[in-house]
Give the backbone structure.
Amino acid sequence: MSHGVTDEATARVAWARIAEPTDSVALGLIRRFGYVDAFEIAARGGTSPSGKPVDRFAARLDRLDLERDREICGRIGARLLVPGDPEWPEALDDLEDPPWCLWVRGPVDLTQVPPRSVAVVGARASTAYGNHVAAEIGSGTGARGFTVVSGAAFGIDAAAHRGALAVEAPTVAVLAGGVDRPYPTAHTDLIGQIARTGVVLSEVPPGSSPTRPRFLARNRLIAALATGTVVVEAGLRSGALSTLRAAVHLGRPVAAVPGPVTSMVSAGCHQAVREECATLVTDAAEVVDLLGAIGSDDMAPQKRGPERPEDQLDQLPHLVWSTLAPFRSRTVEEITVQAGLSANEVLGALGDLQSRGLAELRLDGWGRA
C-alpha cells in the first residue's frame, strides 16, 4: 500500500491531509471503496466512481508524511481521534459527512460535551449589545453545567468563550485551521487558555491554514457537538447562519437572540425566528430551559412585571381606585359619575381601599394614599 496506509485509522489521517473536509470526489471514493482502497486509488491516480481521473490529490500526496505528522502531534501535545476511539464524540456521527478524524488539545473528555452543551455563534463584527448577551449566555449556561462550544472568532464567539471561562466552565473551540495555529492570531492567548482548561479541536491537520471553505465546514462540527445552537447576532449573509442550518438539519434545538429591528447585524436572527427555524431567547435561563432536561430545575422562571398592591383588587374596588389621583381629591359624587357606580358601591369600595392603605379620606374628599 502507498505511503504505509494499511488500515482505516491511518487512511483517515491520510485523507485529512490530502483532501478538504467536504471534498465531493474524496467522499465519493470513500463511500464506494472504503478508506484504504479509496486512498490507494487516489495514490496511483485511478478514476472516481463517475469515471473521471483522480488527479486532484497528486500535489498533496507528494508532500504526505504521516510519520512527521505523528511527531508534530506529540510535540504540540495534541491527541488524534478516529471513530471507535473511547473519546470519539458519537454526536459527530449524526452528520451526513462526519470528520475523518480529529486533532484535539485540552484536558476535557470530548464524550462529556454533547449531553449538556450549547453552541453560541454569531457575527464577527458584533455590537457591544451582542457581546454582552453572548458573554451572559456563556457564563450563565456554564454556571448551570453546560459546556460552551464556539469557533474562537472575533465578536460573539470570543465573548461566549470568555463568559464560560469567567465562571470556570469548560468551553470548546472548533478551529478552521490546525490546532497548532491559533486563528485569529489576536486570540492566541484566548485559544491557549481554552486549551489549558477545555478543548481546542480541528478536523484539518496541524499546520493547516484556515480558509473560507474550512470555516464553513467546521460550522457543521460546532452544530453537531452541541445539544443545541444559539445565534446571538447574524446578518442575512452571516456565516453563523450556516451553523444554524446545520443544527436544523440535524434536528437539534436552535435559538436566536433578538436585536433592534433597525440593526442589520441582527437581521438574520429575526428572519430565523420569523421563519420558525429558531426559538426566541433573551438570556441564559431561557437557553437552559430550551436545551435542559424536561421536568428538572432547568426550567426558566416565568418573567413577570413588578407586582403592585392594586393588582390584587376585585373589579369594583379597582374601578374606584382608578378614578382616584394622588395629588387631587375627589368627592364621592365625582367618583360615582366617573366610575358609573352607585354611591353605596363607591362608599363600600372606598372602605375596602382605605383598609388596604390604597385610599385616604382628606378634608376635601378622597385620594390615593
Notes: Residues 309-368 form a domain with the Arc Repressor Mutant, subunit A fold (CATH 1.10.10.10). The chain has a mean pLDDT of 91.
